[in-house]
Amino acid sequence: MIRKLAHPLLLIALIALCLMSARIMTAQTPAATRRVAVAMHVLPRGTVLTADDFQMRDTSTRGFVSMPDTIAVKPGWVTRRTIEAGEILRAPAVEAPAVVNANSPVSVEFADQNVRLTIRGVAARNGAIGDRVPVRTEMGKRIEATVVAPGRVRID
Hints:
Blueprint: H1 2-26, E1 32-39, E2 54-61, E3 78-79, E4 94-95, E5 105-111, E6 116-123, E7 132-137, E8 142-149, E9 152-154
Parallel strand pairs: 5-9
Antiparallel strand pairs: 1-2, 3-4, 5-6, 6-7, 7-8, 8-9
């Protein structure tokens, strides 16, 4: 008797579960509004952005869309690929301009409470302010340093 009763109850529970999951999937998630940079016209690869090339707009995003790199876009950034009009500007399609170039000389700085040391080195790759780049010092030692200004890196 219990075996006959369990089968219909299991079927009802399965149908109820399917209906609840369908309702959850179709439920509208609240839209988040973000301020993003949008291209005003077609931007070829290698374009240095000016204020006329993009406009900041409020846009709605639904679900788990993450756009952390869209907020920092500023004039002076460079396009890495062709960008269409109306497209949101975000990394890696646009990047901050490199202030340290590969195989160029850099000043390597180290500062501690009472000690300040500056030596010369050569950057191994391009880097924008805040990027970590490998540097080869005059003594042939390879280190990682953070770009702080054009031609200057700092050991942290």
